[in-house]
Every structure is written in structure tokens, then in C-alpha cells.
Write a structure and sequence with these properties.
- It is a single chain.
- Helix 2 crosses helix 4, helix 3 packs across helix 4 and helix 6 crosses helix 8.
- This protein is mainly α and about 180 residues long.
- The protein has 2 domains: about 80 residues, Rna Polymerase Sigma Factor, Chain: A (Orthogonal Bundle), CATH 1.10.1740; about 80 residues, Winged helix-like DNA-binding domain superfamily/Winged helix DNA-binding domain (Arc Repressor Mutant, subunit A, Orthogonal Bundle), CATH 1.10.10.
- The protein contains 8 helices and no strands.
- It is globular.
- One of its GO terms (biological process) is DNA-templated transcription initiation.
Length: about 180
């Protein structure tokens, strides 16, 4: 069955087609959920919520543009919805933002370690970091998505990078001490 036919069958609430769609895209969408969630269990919950939203809104997909891109946007928005109403964002003055670059030697760290330290970031920093660095959204887009101002987005990104840089430095130090 083609993807277009699968989508059309999902629009008819065909549970078999919904199961096929889930099998086809769940691993990709789960990786998105994992990036934005605090932990694995929350990512699983977010994936289920995302698919409920996808199946409820699939009628709105008009076969214009990428279906996978549409799924990704819905998944990110579903996860972000959990945080929108929480007071996790600080209001800051844009003039006080100092950007930090994080240098990562890919051979020194596993993907699991990097994912773990990103997941451990406070919500406001993790969300902005993922949206900006991993998914390429602009600070204006992030501000709109999270109902914050661009200065808050920039400062949260800078703070996320500072925390990650410190965590990487601490990890390197602990590794070198263990090798003594």
C-alpha cells in the first residue's frame, strides 16, 4: 500500500492503517520526543500523545509538502504543549546575553551521553537548545512557539550551552582521574 493510500485510510479511521502508519514513523518520531522530553518514560507518553493528535488532525493533511515534515511539526508542537502553560521560562534583558560555543570531540562521547546531558538540562534550556541547535528554528520562531520573547530564547540557549560545556568538562575530568 502506498503512503498516500495509507494516509487516506487513516482519514477514514481505519485502525489497521493507523497501526501501519505508527509502525512506519514511530521510531523517527520517538527520537524527536526523546530529544524534547526529560526522560525515556516521558518521551513514550509524548509519542502516544503525538500520535493521538496526528490521527485527530490527519484530515487536515492535504498532500502538499512533506508528510514526514508535517508529522515532525505535530510531534514537536505536542511535546511543547506540555511546557507552554508551565512557568519554566525566565524573562531576561536581551543586552545581557553572552553566547557560549560548545566544542565536542565526537570520538570522546557517545550519543547516549550527549542525549543524557541534554535531557538533564532544565526544561526551558533543553527546549530552546533542541529547537535552535538540533532542529534549526530561529529565535523568533522559538519565541512564537513557546510564548516567550527572543531575548529569553537567546539567553536560554546561552545558558544551555554553558551548562553543557561545564558537564562535558566535568565528564572529561572524571575520565582522566579514572585513568590514573
Amino acid at each position: 500500500m502506498s503512503l498516500n493510500q495509507l494516509i487516506e485510510n487513516c482519514k477514514l479511521n481505519d485502525t489497521k492503517a493507523q497501526g501501519e502508519l505508527y509502525k512506519l514513523f514511530s521510531s523517527k518520531l520517538f527520537s524527536i520526543c526523546l530529544k524534547y522530553s526529560r526522560n525515556y518514560a516521558e518521551a513514550e507518553d509524548n509519542l502516544q500523545d503525538a500520535f493521538l493528535t496526528i490521527f485527530n488532525k490527519i484530515e487536515q493533511f492535504k498532500h502538499k509538502g512533506s508528510f514526514e515534515g508535517w508529522l515532525k511539526r505535530i510531534t514537536i508542537n505536542t511535546v511543547l504543549q506540555r511546557y507552554r502553560n508551565e512557568k519554566v521560562f525566565d524573562i531576561v534583558n536581551e543586552k545581557n546575553v553572552e553566547d557560549t560555543q560548545v566544542e565536542v570531540d565526537e570520538d570522546s562521547f557517545s550519543i547516549d551521553f550527549l542525549l543524557k546531558i541534554i535531557q538533564e538540562l532544565p526544561d526551558r534550556y533543553r527546549l530552546v537548545f533542541n529547537l535552535y541547535v538540533l532542529d534549526g528554528y530561529s529565535h523568533k520562531d522559538i519565541a512564537d512557539m513557546l510564548n516567550i520573547n527572543t531575548g529569553t530564547s537567546k539567553s536560554n540557549l546561552a545558558r544551555a550551552r554553558q551548562i553543557l560545556k561545564q558537564n562535558i568538562k566535568d565528564y572529561k575530568l572524571s575520565q582522566s582521574l579514572q585513568s590514573l
